[in-house]
Amino acid sequence: GAMTNLVSLLKDGNYSGTTIAAILSFAGAVSWVSRITVGYLLDKFYAPYICTAIFIGTAVGLILLTTQGSVLPLYVGAALLALALSSEADLITYMVSRYFRLVDYSRVIGLLWVTWAWSGSLGALAAGSSFTWTGSYRYAFYAFALMLIFAVAIILTLGPYRHTEKESSAG
Q1: Which terminus of the chain is less hemmed in, N or C, by CB atoms within 10 Å?
Q2: Positive or negative torsion for Cα 7, 8, 9, 14
Q3: How far is CA 47 from CA 61, 151, 170, in A?
Q4: Sequence-distant (≥ 6) Cβ neighbours of residue 70 within 8 angstroms
Q5: Is the pTM of this model over 0.85?
């Protein structure tokens, strides 16, 4: 919901079209680079820790996006948001392959993607409603940041992988 409303948030902050385009272009570049980087990191490090770092970074990014005045926090906030949005598919598919049997993989991924799609649409609605009711996206972004911190607490309880790469590919 945050990325959907990012242009509106920046317009409401009275930033120029050039500044908004530059921030979104930077976020796009970060998104492209982070897809490669996160995939590499998943092969080297424990995925829940990578996910935790990305979620905490995203929470910080959401709060930075609500700041007014300096443009630098907006670049950083948009970049942190882009990092999360570009790595979500990699994180989900990798972690499902490590915590669920191959026979269950499609069902779990399907359930998670449906949940992701509904959550994204509800997040966009929540951010828009926040603006309608209060004149600011701040409250929705704060709520999103709190939900990310709650998600981190859950992710850190996952424990060791239940399936190795060999088991996942062998069936």
Answers
A1: C
A2: positive
A3: 21, 14, 21
A4: none
A5: yes
